[in-house]
């Protein structure tokens, strides 16, 4: 393989530096490294981390991204030991992408031949009604994930590619599938069913599945500890506000409702997705504006949301535009906040009693304006944000409500890779 071209100012990391991790390269100590793979149609994101030692905000031991698989020129970016390495060459398929990534990791002292990987965790987008829990991957599990392709035609095939390739390259290590939908399996029928003709819905798997489940579960599991209450006593709302965004209502550790639906297009306004719209808009655009179904899919998934209204989807840019008094940016922000507040209200009623509201993901963890505006003026509902706590720079789990707020408000950093790694190692140890 070609020698990797390192990025400007970066020197290949001395092997000993990366190898100074306990349990790596023969250094004594017990390591529990997991490889986490998130395979898309033309990309693979991966991390190697020790889920027993890592925190949500700690850097993984290794992280990487394979991009432009199947295009004339591909690219692998690897971060390890504080250094960044870039390899550019054609990557015909996922198998070659993973093989090249492993070679690159090995060259820098942090690959599967040097680091003992205990388990491989695979993010799988759609588990349908078949999967409520992570599963050790067998041929039968792969077949079941394949059966779900009609529900996630873009995502599940790529996830299966990643699983098959990784199982071939690392055949002696347990592989675990963690489903984005799994946490929402517990939703009661009243929340999971749409009022769509029952026969058509059943024949076509039309129901609410929910997504971002790994994140909502991971974040919500930390809240009882912050409250000093047992999980079964806690009713909570979690707000995963990243580029994709979703809210979840959780009672005693079980999800009872969520904003994403049969697909991740539903619910909150997102970076580029519309969130909930009148479904009649789709018929109108098809019949009257002459748009094809693929055009409308692209419109609602990639050209709508905050970006569709303002031109940008990154909240840092949106804030800068608002400060420059850009009217479109201001309007986009208000539409986003309005929809978010509506769902917070809906979930307070759905739960009846709420102990905590928690913000997470890129926007939720970092944008104090969004947090303040989402909960402004709700003192009558027992929600009182503390402006100083909300504005204080901090990247750990923290309370941002006042001491006398009946509903506690938290920021809890999410880390889906860490959650997947924990499951992978946990299931591998049980085997
Ligand atoms: P993804 O959904 O892609 O996993 P993330 O959870 O990483 O996304 O969130 C990415 C988004 O977080 C960015 O598009 C940006 O809008 C927002 N974001 C990241 N950092 C900040 C920040 N410091 N202030 C405001 N927004 C931020």
Describe, in plain words, how this protein is organized in 3D.
- The protein is an alpha+beta fold and 431 residues long.
- It has 2 domains: 7-13 and 30-179, ATPase, nucleotide binding domain (Nucleotidyltransferase, domain 5); 228-416, ATPase, nucleotide binding domain (Nucleotidyltransferase, domain 5, 2-Layer Sandwich).
- It contains 17 helices and 15 strands.
- It has a 9-stranded mixed beta sheet, sandwiched between helices.
- Strand 5 (74-80) and strand 6 form a beta hairpin.
- The protein is globular, with a radius of gyration of 22 Å.
- Adenosine-5'-diphosphate binds at residues 242-244, 271, 313-316, 361-363, 366-367.
Summary?
The protein is an alpha+beta fold and 431 residues long. The chain has two domains: 7-13 and 30-179, ATPase, nucleotide binding domain (Nucleotidyltransferase, domain 5, 2-Layer Sandwich), CATH 3.30.420; 228-416, 2-Layer Sandwich (Nucleotidyltransferase, domain 5).
């Amino acid at each position: 393989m070609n020698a990797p071209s390192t990025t400007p100012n970066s020197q290949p990391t001395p092997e000993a530096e990366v190898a100074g991790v306990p349990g790596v390269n023969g250094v004594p100590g017990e390591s529990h490294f997991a490889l986490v793979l998130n395979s898309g149609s033309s990309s693979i994101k991966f991390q190697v981390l020790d889920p027993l030692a890592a925190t949500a905000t700690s850097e993984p031991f290794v992280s990487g991204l394979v991009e432009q698989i199947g295009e004339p020129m591909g690219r692998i970016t690897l971060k390890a030991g504080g250094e960044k390495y870039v390899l550019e060459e054609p990557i015909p398929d996922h198998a070659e992408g993973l093989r090249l990534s492993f070679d690159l990791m090995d060259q820098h002292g942090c690959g599967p031949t040097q680091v003992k990987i205990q388990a491989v965790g695979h993010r799988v987008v759609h588990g349908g009604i078949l999967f409520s829990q992570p599963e050790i991957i067998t041929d039968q599990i792969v077949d079941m994930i394949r059966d779900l392709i009609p529900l996630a035609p873009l995502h599940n095939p790529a996830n299966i590619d990643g699983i098959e390739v990784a199982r071939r390259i690392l055949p002696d290590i347990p592989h675990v599938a963690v489903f984005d939908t799994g946490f929402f399996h517990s939703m009661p029928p009243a929340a999971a069913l749409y009022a769509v003709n029952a026969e058509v819905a059943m024949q076509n798997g039309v129901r609410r599945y929910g997504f971002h489940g790994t994140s909502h579960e991971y974040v919500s599991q930390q809240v009882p500890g912050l409250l000093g209450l047992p999980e079964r006593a806690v009713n909570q709302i979690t707000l995963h506000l990243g580029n994709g965004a979703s809210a979840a209502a959780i009672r005693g550790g079980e999800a009872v409702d969520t904003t994403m639906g049969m697909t991740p297009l539903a619910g909150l306004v997102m970076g580029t997705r519309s969130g909930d719209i009148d479904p009649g808009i789709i018929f109108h655009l098809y019949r009257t504006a002459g748009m094809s179904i693929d055009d409308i899919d692209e419109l609602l998934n990639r050209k709508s949301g905050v970006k569709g209204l303002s031109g940008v989807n990154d909240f840092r840019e949106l804030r800068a535009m608002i400060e420059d008094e850009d009217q479109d940016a201001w309007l986009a922000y208000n539409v986003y906040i309005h929809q978010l507040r509506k769902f917070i209200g809906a979930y307070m009623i759905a739960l009846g009693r709420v102990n905590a509201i928690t913000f997470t993901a890129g926007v939720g963890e970092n944008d104090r304006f969004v947090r303040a505006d989402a909960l402004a003026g709700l003192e009558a509902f027992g929600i009182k944000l503390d402006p100083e706590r909300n504005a204080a720079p901090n990247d750990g789990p923290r309370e941002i409500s006042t001491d006398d707020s009946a509903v506690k408000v938290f920021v809890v950093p999410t880390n889906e890779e860490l959650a997947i790694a924990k499951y992978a190692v946990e299931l591998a140890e049980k085997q």
